[in-house]
Amino acid sequence: MKKITNLVLGMMLFPAAVFAQQMDFSTAIPLDPSVKTGKLPNGLTYYIKKNAKPEKKVDLRLVVNAGSILEENDQQGLAHFMEHMCFNGTKRFPKNQLVDYLQSIGVKFGQHLNAYTSFDETVYFLPIPSDDPEKLEKGFQIIEDWAFNTVLTPEEIDKERGVVLEEYRLGLGAGKRMMGRYLPKMMHDSKYATRLPIGQKEVLEKFKHQSLINFYKDWYRPNLMSVIVVGDIDVAEMEKKIVSHFSSYKNPANEKPRKVFEVPNHKETFVAVESDKEASNTQVQLLYKDYAAPKKMVNLGDFKNYMIENLFATLLNTRLDELTNSATPPFTYGYSYYGGTFARTKKGYQSVAMSSEDKQLSALKTLVTENERAKKFGFTQGELDRAKSEFMASIEKAYNDRSKTNSENFVGELQANFLENEPAPGIEWTFQTFKQILPMIDLKDVNGLIKEYVKEDNRVIILTGPEKEGLKKVTEQEVLAAIKVNTDELKPYEDAAVATSLLRKEVKAGTVVSRSSNDKLGTKTLVLSNGAKVTYKNTDFKNDEVLFEAVSLGGSNLYSNEEMKKVQFANGALAEAGFSGLKLNDINKFMTGKIARVNPYISGITEGLRGSSTPKDLEYLFQMTYAYFTDLNFDQEAFEGFKQKQSSFFKNMASTPQNYFQQEFYTYLNQNNPRFFGIMPTDKSWADTDYKLAYEKYKERFANAADFEFFFVGNVDDATIEAMATKYIASLPANDKKEKAVDLGYRMLKGDLKKVVNKGADPKSNVTIMFYGDAKYSAKDAMSMQALGEVLTIKLVEQLRENESGVYGVNARGSISKMPYGSYNFSIGFPCGPENAEKLTASALKELQNIIDKGPDEKDIAKFKEGELADFRKDSKENRFWLSNLTRSYLNASNPEDVLKMEEMVNAVTAKDIQNIAKQYLTKDKVIGILMPEKK
Fold first, then answer.
1. Distance (Å, rounded) from C-alpha 855 to C-alpha 136?
2. Mean pLDDT across the stretch 361-387?
3. Please, what sign has the CA dihedral across residues 249, 253, 256, 258?
4. How confident is residue 110, by pLDDT bands cut at 50, 70 and 90?
5. 266, 439, 732, 739, 883 from 613: Cα distances, Å
6. Which terminus of the chain, N or C, has fewer Cβ atoms within 10 Å?
7. pLDDT band for position 886 (50/70/90)?
8. Which helix (H) or strand (E) segment is 316 a member of?
9. Is 527 in a helix, a strand, or coil?
10. Cα(481)–Cα(475) distance, rounded to whole angstroms?
11. Residue among 7, 53, 45, 12 nearest 424 (CA)
12. What confidence category does residue 16 fall into, taking pLDDT thresholds of 50, 70 and 90?
């Protein structure tokens, strides 16, 4: 289930043509004319779209309209198991050759190459290079083999059981236990209640090989499949490849009907109040299920209704956000929306909130009350106008960046068109239609919706939360009482006046003292009259994006230990107070329809601000920056609200075994660090917290703009940046003081150490192996350490997953840092069964020792290089990459031009470099942390 922001983003990518002034709402929504679509004689559907971002890449996707809902009783979990088998060997790529080949061309397993199985579909992702005919052909061979030629030998099936069972193990815990009890009520009397894609453990352990073969033969067939191709390609050539690779396959002679499974209506209100000793948070969910199956969106009238539904959700969620930002928030977060359930055949109106453990009923009552308030009084014209402006700003941004959108964004849209007949008309159509329809929508349209949504039958209420001594469990009777609201006592929503400006202080502009440029990097630098420095890079990666970061050395390492204890958990509250005398809700209301944001931060060795905007709204970003430097509010009530939400969020976090392990493990390692106060705040942490001190320290950190460098990357021009910088940055307070990053000298425990933590009822373990310490930084060593992590991961997947079937996932990563002191960090981590923890730890260390003794295999180094260079070529066409390079270079006092040698640096890595770095740093001290279940 998605929050409304995701729904809006999805809607924005529905794309049209210019219509006559008199709109005919029966007009069909067209398919994006830039998409080539067709159906082979065997029923396979295909979509092809040319899109040049990222360059020389294509996203291939195989979509199978079959998931766990189609499983027989003896097949529970086999739709997902089949997904695993597709990566384990096909006719053209036996055993591990498929993953091996893809890694050799820069496609990383899990990160790029992936798949998922849900109730109704199974989908395979394959992004590959499009500029090499051989690689492109092999890509089509792979998706053809996935569809029809996966190898299902008894040996391979049995080998994969262990891996799938490890993935099943990963899902065990409080969430699954509680879901097992409430899902039969949520999906009452439907097959969806008994077909979670992960399946049943007993079936996965014992199913007959033929059961999996039958699933593959029955459901992996052309008339249930789609092939989607989006990327930097020739459309006609791709169509020929699809015809060539997929036309010869036939559907089964006596094919099983692809049934659609209903979720029956019910007169009752089902209530599920579930608790668990390991539950980490408290949630409330209210679901009003539709009586009828979802209506397909086929014409302009349907599109208008869709817009109205999303406007309604935006309006109601804005009110819920305002309550969340109040001095006494009723919940940590809350939202409502109209949308899908687990079943394709059932939509509903849903309200969700996370509350403190003892406030479930009041959170539920607030959700119901706001529904009833909207039902009785509706919304105001001001609210609707702001919601419309927000929608228009979002759709305009998507339209402006229509030629700079990544292929993966289009693939999902076309997939939904195939699976659920969701329209995919293209952003041009959507933008033009949006502009026409939006002014036609009035208060009557949005105010009428809630009456259709809210009903007293076909309703489900789900409460989940912790179970512990002293906490009274809510009863079903209390839940039913909480949803009864006396509407006579309700008052209309009061729409407060909108602020007229983000600033209340006069801004006295400064000047530019000097200008310089770096032609290699494409950057320009301004030194301002107050000593502040502004560096910016104009790019054409996005038409409607500007990214920003201001950074200064210093940070909380300059606080005393006692000060740090008092402010550590208060720093997050500072921005919650707002600025310029405006509360957070005032700022949000003012910024409706404008796309700009800025967030201040204080880390251990830096302080700064991060933000983004469109070019059109860039001045608001500068104004927020000015306000955060000069006019941050002090608001004790806002802090108390923040504390309440954070306390609710973290209070039971350590009930989850993994979180408990992290807390215990790092407390053990940091026992000699007087500045370590735990990784999660406790009641004592909040009692020690001093908001006033945090506020004063913040003002101290942001008192000197001359000690900051301000970086901008995106669609910026010289005149605008100079005008904004001289007005809003050159005017900031400044002095001659320059601070540095300070190394306080505290380190984690050293030695050959082992810490076992027992927590949790399920048979689940997690292993963490860490090597760390001081190091002399060099860019070459840092690259070698990173490469070591990548090549060891390849070996660990081969050994621990493929050969031993002992893990679902395993990862190794290494880094060498320069600030605030030279240090190295290398870790290996994996979840597994408790009975295998020691054995797999030994296997992992043996793989590392092989590299130390013999060096890595050349083919694994080649895989690292291909993957790293593929990522670099893609990332270097993104604004965030260049912003990160500039800020990292500032932090490390390194040359930002080094990034121009990235390909050279990657290609220069040798087996000897990797072996040497492993010998130098990973042969001495290490720490092993193991999470084990509680002893019975």
1. 32
2. 97
3. positive
4. confident
5. 48, 25, 21, 29, 14
6. C
7. very high
8. helix 300-324
9. strand
10. 10
11. 12
12. very low
Beta 269-276 vs 347-355: how paired, if at all?
unpaired
Phi then psi for residue 887, to 5 deg, are -70, -40
Measured distance CA(384)–CA(445) in Å, rounded? 11
First to last CA, the chain: 37
3-state class of 448 per DSSP? coil
Q: How far is CA 346 from CA 32, 265, 421, 741, 867, in A?
A: 27, 10, 15, 56, 42
Q: Which two tokens stand for residue 744?
A: 């306080």
Rounded to 10 degrees, the C-alpha dihedral 731/734/740/743 comes to -100
**Bridge partners of 553?**
606
Percentages helix, strand, coil for the chain (3-state, rounded to 5) are 45, 20, 35
- Strand pairing class (823-832; 765-774): antiparallel
- CA 32 from chain center: how many Å? 27
* Mutual angle of helices 837-854 and 911-921, in 10-degree steps: 120
**Cβ 843 vs Cβ 765: under 8 Å:** no
Report the alpha-carbon distance of residue 325 to residue 319 in Å, rounded. 10
| Residue 473 tokens, joined | 């469990």
Kindly indicate the confidence band of residue 109, based on its pLDDT and cuts at 50, 70 and 90.
confident
**CA-to-CA distance for 542 and 714, rounded, in angstroms?**
7
Integer CA distances (angstroms), 606 to 467, 618, 620, 886, in order: 41, 24, 24, 15
**Residue 83, pLDDT above cutoff 70:** yes
Of 273, 346, 281, which is closest to residue 1 (Cα–Cα)? 346
- pLDDT at residue 327 above 50? yes
Cβ proximity of 228 and 411 under 8 Å: yes
Any residues with CB less than 8 A from the CB of 261 and at least 6 apart, and which?
69, 190, 191, 192, 343, 345
**What pTM did the predictor assign?**
0.94
The Cα 725–Cα 880 span in angstroms is: 21
The tens digit of pLDDT for each residue in 281-312 reads 999 999 999 999 999 999 999 999 999 999 99
3-state secondary structure of 770: strand
Provide the pLDDT confidence category of residue 434 given band limits of 50, 70 and 90. very high
pLDDT tens digits along 814-858: 999 999 999 999 999 999 999 999 999 999 999 999 999 999 999
Cis-peptide into 933, omega within 30 deg: no
Cα-trace Rg, the chain: 29
Structure tokens at 185: 């009520």
Q: pLDDT category, 214, cuts 50, 70, 90? A: very high
pLDDT at 568 over 80: yes
pLDDT at position 405: 95
Average pLDDT over residues 32-42: 98
Distances (CA, A) of 277 to 359, 471, 759: 18, 11, 11
Angle CA(494)–CA(498)–CA(502) in degrees, nearest 5? 145
Q: Is the peptide bond before 820 cis (omega within 30 degrees of 0)?
A: yes
Q: What is the pLDDT of residue 17?
A: 36
Instruction: Tell me: pLDDT of 369 over 80.
Output: yes
Q: 89: phi > 0 → left, psi -120 to 50 → alpha, else beta; which?
A: left
What's 4-63 look like in SS3? HHHHHHHHHCCCCCCCCCCCCCCCECCCCCCEEEEECCCCCEEEEEECCCCCCEEEEEEE
Provide DSSP, 569-599.
TTGGGGGGG-BTTB-HHHHHHHTTT--EEEE
Q: Which token pair is 168?
A: 């099943």
Mean pLDDT of the chain: 95
Instruction: Determine the pLDDT at residue 22.
Output: 74
